[in-house]
Amino acid sequence: MGTTTPAAVPEPKYWHLKSVLSDALESDFEVGEILPNERDLAARFGVARATLRQALDQLELEGRLQRRRGVGTTVAPPRVGVAVGDTEPRWPGDSDEAWEPVGYVEQQPPAAVTRLLGAAADDKVHVVRRVRARHGQPVAAELVYVPAASVPGLTRIDAEGPALARAVLRELQRLELQGQERTVELGSATADDAKELDRLPGAPVLVVTARYTSGDATAAVAVGTYRADTCRLTFGEDGGLLAG
Amino acid sequence: MGTTTPAAVPEPKYWHLKSVLSDALESDFEVGEILPNERDLAARFGVARATLRQALDQLELEGRLQRRRGVGTTVAPPRVGVAVGDTEPRWPGDSDEAWEPVGYVEQQPPAAVTRLLGAAADDKVHVVRRVRARHGQPVAAELVYVPAASVPGLTRIDAEGPALARAVLRELQRLELQGQERTVELGSATADDAKELDRLPGAPVLVVTARYTSGDATAAVAVGTYRADTCRLTFGEDGGLLAG
DNA sequence: TAGTGGTCTAGACCACTTT
DNA sequence: AAGTGGTCTAGACCACTAG
């Protein structure tokens, strides 16, 4: 028998569909424009709605689409560059893109954070919740874990919510933090994060874990969750060409 | 009418299922252990297979599970820390975790890369494919775009594949690169990337775009795709506590 | 109230790996 | 050949938004 062609693995329908839609997004639609609804699109391409949704899921994961329940599917703007590099240690900051403390959380740090805090985790750990927005849209929610030992000067423990949160961060800021140790991984939004980020629980997020050191010790640990659909994290000497 | 409870939004089945499975993974299973197959699991929890798969999808996205067609679903080991920070500019390196050039690609850079290369994109651009492995498993595939102007000393353009790839990188290494400009965003693996990473097309990846500068000009641009399921990217002064 | 995306079902077949 | 995960269907109902 003659050698046949290498079998030509059939491309999944949703994969092909994604390419077609991707091309159409570039040539036939403007940013912000509403696409036909899923039932119409599925019919138009002759596939089941679930199959169409597989293609849309991927495009949304890549930040090309934005879907809102009860409203529709729109073409997403390019991802916004969010700096998480050297610029961050000036904690509160005051630009439009700064973090906004929203509350003081009463809870135990998760095991992974406790490990990073080391010995400092033995005593009380302050937990501050803060959020970050760009162009009016929330892009990140963060929990900052600060061992009481790191902020001995903290007074007004009687304050509440945002006020107490600010007090903790203000004290932390007095330390000379040289923490440049960070990790980035993929995660899915918890119910709490989802609420802050205006997304559904389980939405894909980029989890940024930062360890701030003062001398040799861990002064604080921050775990930030960034909306993976809308954010492009930028590192290094402040933006540059990649900042977008 | 009396005030009723705040409606108590029903938690999606797959969301609850995920929590249950997540707990079970920690208490009842060892890393590498094989879970019951999807049909059994679905029956055990009294849900459709598609619903169970939604839960498994999320756990896989978080790096808790590993699924292999024809084999089964296993409990994944903790994510491996992969350094993408200051340590990288020593390009080839020779440790176990180094990049391995695998070929020289004949193709035009995508528009986004051309933009980053600036004027240098006008002449020929060398494109090198390289991969990176940890513990025998591939973790990243990268395309390095090097304008011909950046490597004037390049000879042996007659070489092929890996040999030519090495030649290009060797020449690039002669420059004093100070590029610390990087971005990280979520993407899905192309067919090519998927093959290198031993995953299916569309698998979630962390896309790291690096711009290497020499003086003021862009000397090269690298676009790396890291397996989001198995990798935790580490930045900053070489690992430290977060490296894991 | 009508229309949207989100969840869920109960099946079927396919691609792949192992035996 | 048997068993696994991956794809696909054709429905149904729910949660949410807007007119």
Automatic annotation (TrEMBL), chains A, B:
Residues 11-78 form the HTH gntR-type domain. GO terms for molecular function: DNA binding; DNA-binding transcription factor activity. Pfam families: GntR, UTRA. Keywords: DNA-binding, Transcription, Transcription regulation. InterPro entries: Bact_HTH_transcr_reg (IPR050679), Chorismate_lyase_/UTRA_dom_sf (IPR028978), Tscrpt_reg_HTH_GntR (IPR000524), UTRA (IPR011663), WH-like_DNA-bd_sf (IPR036388), WH_DNA-bd_sf (IPR036390). SMART domains: HTH_GNTR (SM00345), UTRA (SM00866). Gene3D superfamilies: Chorismate lyase-like, Winged helix-like DNA-binding domain superfamily/Winged helix DNA-binding domain. The keyword Transcription applies. The keyword Transcription regulation applies. GO terms for biological process: negative regulation of DNA-templated transcription. This is GntR family transcriptional regulator.
